[in-house]
Design goal:
This protein is α/β, with parallel strands linked by helices. It has three domains: about 200 residues, FAD/NAD(P)-binding domain; about 110 residues, 3-Layer(bba) Sandwich (FAD/NAD(P)-binding domain); about 100 residues, FAD/NAD-linked reductase, C-terminal dimerisation domain (Enolase-like, domain 1). Helices cover about 30% and strands about 25% of the residues. Helix 1 runs parallel beside helix 4, helix 1 runs parallel beside helix 9 and helix 3 runs antiparallel to helix 4. The longest helix has 26 residues. About 40% of the residues are buried.
Length: about 450
């Protein structure tokens, strides 16, 4: 028998940690998982899953507007949304999913320990609050990230983060959302769709820094069409609580009044009080756990996956990293996950699907590129005279004609990008892409019918 209590001790029962624990336990290893909150992690409990439910709920208002144009007679009294009813159903579904994670862990033979785990050295783990220390041969850290709030802003205690947004006792009449990334634009669409007067404030020149510039401009335009106010190049100076609401005093002198102020300005690796220094686990310059291509840390027997490593902070990536970890450590098959050409979606309204490089990134990496771009009204909205427009864009290396970027903004774009990512990951050329026959009538057919290179209009 091993000199340790466990062959593998996993810290954090999010999607990545649970997958690693299950697969390792199925090899016959003795596995334990420690979780200080609820099983399921950020994605299931306070992230992509409940947020997607909120997106679904908020999209109905736009659908109701379109229905009349298709011949539906709406009742004189407009449909109403009941926030408590939605919350109860959302919470019940999250509890069900969390329970499935627990059941799957147990079924695989892993032990679940509901406690915060802290490293005492490379092999000893303290279970905080249980007056108990256990030992493990291998340790996997998969604790994810946590919300970051700018403590230097006076009055920040009156603001909420995305964590609290999932449990508001009542839907506000107005909200100021601070930030320009995934979470900020997604919640802007959610609140706006649920009838909340929504203002998005971002310190930069445009939302979604790091995305393709045409995507950024297009989404901002479409969000404004839906009634979302976007205030750019603006930052909070302080937040004042008054009897009638919150006043956001901005550094430029402007004041914004709202029922709620929500900060969505980023997440950071959750390395607090883990005892990493005692175990010899080093952090990188971003404050994340530094790992090699096999997710091994600076401590020879300790590994880390998911958001705590700040590589690509997506649930499917954490799961693939977990699979590679088990292959490497428990199946003698050294494996790493290829972080190149990972597709992603932003569930803004309209949503974004993207894979590969932006035009600027491609030009910097490859030099000359060909760009193919289309902007059009989907037939669903053309029929009713709507103003919604889609954007589709392909980035092609001029010398090789390999497609290195695909960006879609509009209905069903997250569904489209999953299929597009397969071909792009395989290194498809524009000629091969064009050989694909279109599916008609769909918006997606535009992806394989773009033949003319896009030339940006001259400045001025």
């Amino acid at each position: 028998m091993s000199q340790y209590d466990y062959d593998l001790f996993v810290i954090g029962a999010g999607s990545g940690g649970v997958r690693a624990a299950r697969l390792a336990a199925m090899t016959g290893a003795r596995v334990a998982v420690a979780e200080e909150d609820r099983v399921g992690g950020t994605c299931v409990i306070r992230g992509c899953v409940p947020k997607k439910f909120m997106v679904y709920a908020s999209e109905f208002s736009h659908a109701f507007e379109a229905a009349e144009g298709f011949g539906w007679t709406l009742p004189e009294q407009a449909p109403t949304f009941d926030w408590p009813t939605f919350l109860a159903r959302k919470d019940a579904e999250i509890a069900r999913l969390s329970g499935l994670y627990v059941a799957n862990l147990t079924k695989a033979g892993a032990e679940l320990i509901m406690a915060k785990a802290r490293l005492l050295d490379a092999h000893r783990i303290e279970l905080v609050g249980q007056d108990r220390v256990v030992t493990a041969d291998k340790i996997l850290i998969s604790v994810g990230g946590r919300v970051w709030m700018p403590s230097e802003v006076p009055g920040i205690e009156h603001a909420i983060s995305s964590n609290e947004a999932f449990h508001l006792p009542a839907l506000p009449k107005s909200v100021v959302i601070v930030g320009g990334g995934y979470i900020a634009v997604e919640f802007a669409g959610i609140f706006n769709g649920l009838g909340v007067d929504t203002t998005l404030v971002y310190r930069g020149a445009n939302i979604l820094r790091g995305f393709d510039e045409d995507v950024r401009v297009h989404l901002a335009d479409e969000m404004r069409k839906r009634g979302i106010k976007i205030v750019l190049d603006s930052q909070h100076e302080r937040i004042e609580k008054t009897p009638t609401g919150l006043v956001s005093h901005m550094k430029g002198g402007e004041s914004l009044i709202s029922d709620e102020v929500m900060f969505a300005v980023g997440r950071v690796p959750y390395v607090d009080e883990l005892g990493l220094e005692k175990a010899g686990v080093a952090l990188n310059e971003r404050g994340a756990i530094a790992v090699d291509q096999h997710s091994k840390t600076s401590a020879d027997n300790i590994y880390a996956i998911g958001d705590v490593t700040d590589r690509i902070n997506l649930t499917p990536v954490a799961i693939r990293e977990a699979v590679a970890f088990v292959e490497t450590v428990f199946k003698a098959n050294p494996s790493g996950f290829d972080h190149d050409m990972v597709a992603t979606a932003v569930f803004s309204q309209p949503p974004i699907g993207t894979v590969g490089l932006s035009e600027a990134e491609a030009r910097q990496k490859y030099g000359a590129v060909d760009v193919y771009m289309a902007k059009f009204r989907p037939m669903k909205y053309t029929f009713i005279g709507g103003e919604d427009r889609m954007l589709m864009k392909l980035i092609v290396v001029e010398a090789t004609q390999v497609i290195v970027g695909c960006h879609v903004v509009g209905p069903d774009s997250p569904e489209m990008i999953q299929m597009a990512a397969i071909a792009i990951k395989m290194g498809v050329t524009k000629a091969q892409w064009d050989q694909t026959c279109a599916v008609h009538p769909t918006a997606a057919e535009e992806l394989v019918t773009m033949r003319d290179k896009y030339v940006a209009p001259a400045a001025g």
